[in-house]
Amino acid sequence: MTGKTSEKPEERKVTPSSPIGIFDSGVGGLSVLQEILRQLPHEDVVYLADTARVPYGGRPPEEIIKINEEIIPFLIDYGAKLILMACGTSSSIAYPVLKDKYKIHVIGLIEPGSRAAIAATRNGTIGLIATAGTVNSQAYQNALLFLKKEIKVFAQACPLFVPLIEGGFIEAEETKKVAKEYLKPLLKEEIDTLILGCTHYPLLAKILRERTGPNVAFVDPAEEAVADVKRLLQKSGTMKSKTSAPKYEYLVTGSVVQFQDLGSRLLGKPITHAKHVII
Prior knowledge:
The chain has 279 residues and is α/β, with parallel strands linked by helices. It is built from twelve helices and eleven strands. It has a seven-stranded parallel β-sheet, sandwiched between helices. α1 (30-39) packs across α11 (221-236), α5 (110-120) crosses α11 (221-236) and α9 (173-188) packs across α10 (205-212). The chain starts with a strand and ends with a strand.
C-alpha cells in the first residue's frame, strides 16, 4: 500500500492537462481504460476502483445513485475535466438521474453501446449480458428500441461474472460453466450481436467467444463511449497536447495490493502506485 488518505485533494483548475476521471466498482473499468489508451494515448487519467463496495449489480437503485453521488464530486474535486462511468450498472441507473447535475461532462455507456449494437446487427436480434441491476433497469432495452423499433432484444443477467473476475477466476472451469449457462438462452434466440453490458465482461471475451462461435458480433460499449469522450474534448478545446507523457493515477477504496495484482495482469502493464482512499 503506497498511501492512504481520508481527505479530498484541493480542487484543481480544469485545463487540457487535467485528467479524465474513470470509475468502476473494481477492475472491470480497466477495459475502458484500455480503450482510452488506444484512442486517447496522451491523456492523463485518474482511475477510481470502488472495490470496498464491489459488486454494484445487486444493489438497490437508490444505493447505486447514492454511491455515484459520492464518487463523482470526489473526482471533480480531484481535478477531473470529464468523467466516464466505466460501469454498466452506474450508467443504466445513476446516469439518467445525474448526467446534468455537475459542472463537467459525465459520460455513460448505454447510449454509445446501443448505437454500436444497432450498427453491428445484421438480423436485428441483439443479446445483452449485464448485471441484474442493468438488466432490470431496462436501460439498454429502451435505448435500443428507441434507436430502431424493429429490433428484438434478449437480456440475460449474469450475477456471478463480476465476483469470479474480481476473484481472479477468469479462465477457471467454473467460469466457463457459468458462461455456458448464461449464454444458452440467448443463443437459442439466434442473436447475431452480443452487448457486453458490464465493463468486467470484455475480460471474459475469450471464453464467451468459445460459446458463441465466430458469427456473433461482440459490442464493447467502451469503444463508442471513448469516441464520444474524444469528440467532446476536441469540441471544448480541452484535449491534452502531445508534449508530455501521460500520467495514470489509481485510487482504490478496498485492498490496494489485490487491485494492483489483478489489475496489472488484466491491464497488461504494471500498476504499482495505487493509493487507498476513503470516500
